[in-house]
Every structure is written in C-alpha cells, then in structure tokens.
Amino acid sequence: MRIETFTLGPLQTNAYLLTNTDSEGKERGIVIDPGMGPAKLLERIASVKLEAIVLTHAHFDHMAGVEAVRQAAGCPVYLHDLEAGWLVDPKLNGSARWPDVTQPITANPAEYALDEGQKLELIGEVFRVMHTPGHSPGSVSLLCGNELFSGDVLFRLSVGRTDLPGGRERDLYDSINRLYQELPESVNVYPGHGPRTTIGYEMANNPYVRKR
Fold first, then answer.
1. Domain housing 124
2. Which of its termini does the chain have fewer beta carbons within 10 Å around, N or C?
3. Model pLDDT, residue 211
4. Is residue 143 in some structural domain?
5. What region holds the Metallo-beta-lactamase domain (predicted)?
6. Where does the pLDDT of residue 210 fall: very low under 50, low under 70, confident under 90, or very high at 90 and above?
7. How many structural domains are present in the chain?
8. For the whole model, what pTM was predicted?
C-alpha cells in the first residue's frame, strides 16, 4: 500500500491518500481527512478510482474538502455516528468559531457510520476502526497492518487538544493508553498534524502520555 501525505490549509492538516494497484493496473484508493484547500489532492486523485473518504473526526480542518473530493470521485464518506450531525453544522464542526481562518463550512451527511471494532475492506486491505475519543467524541483511529492513522488523538511528542466542544482530557489519555497497550511499538503513526512517528517512540518520549 502506498501512502501519500497532503498538508492542507492554514492549520496544516494532513490528508492521506492510500492506494493500491488492482489486477487491471488501475490505481484504487481511499482518502483520509480531506481538509481545506484540497487542490493538490484533487489533481492527484484524478487518475485514481476512489473507493471511500474516511474521516477520523469531523472538525472543519479535517472535513473542509469532503464535498470537493466526493463530487470529483463519486465515492461515499465514512464517519463515526457520534459526529453524524457535525458535517452539516458549522457550530459543531468548529468552522463558525474561527472566522479569521475560514467561512462557515458544511457538507452533506456521511453515507456510512464507523464504529468500534468495525473492519473496512477497501482497496484490497482491511482497516480496523478503533474508537479513540477525547479530542472529540467520535474520534477514531484506523489501523491497517503496521500503519495507524490517528487523527488528532496522538501526535509526535504531543496529543490532541481537549478544550473544544465534546473534548475530554480523561477520555483522550485513556484512548492513547489503549493504543500503547494494544499495538506493537513498531506501528507507524500518521497523525492529523505534523510528522509521522511510532507507538514505541511516543511511549518512551511523549511528555504528555508515557507508558505507565
């Protein structure tokens, strides 16, 4: 599986394009968290058959590009049910709170719900959905083999903020400790902002949450 990163918008949000080549030589892919100003991402996916858009959560900097990508690719969107109403509501997705960054942003509802333990079979891979709340109530992390897409839960040497509506510090720390307990240290972590890291590196070095 090929992983490409597109850092989008004023908040430098990481969108990920994951692709495989099928038996006919056609690239098939999914997009995780298409954020603001997705022009480069749209240019890249013009030659890709997209099977899905998967959102780790529905804050505006992670979903602002949903409609542009969905219309270009004709693919469905997946989002945890606890944030089902956030795409259509600028107050819930946060865009109404940041007028210096963006106009209010809305998108049509997701076609499919994500839930704890769910397995998505996409582009010839299996993605395990881990419900990891704390940054937001419906935050999920997606595990595929040795690759984890953590949204705004775990960053390199940092963690997601919990002062936005629906955030809860205790839930966030519980979610991160769960990742530490359940995943091998070798797992690569692709966060919603900033550089890639590993579970082992964060267990040893993250000043906010270290392995207990």
1. 2-205
2. C
3. 65
4. yes
5. 12-193
6. confident
7. 1
8. 0.96
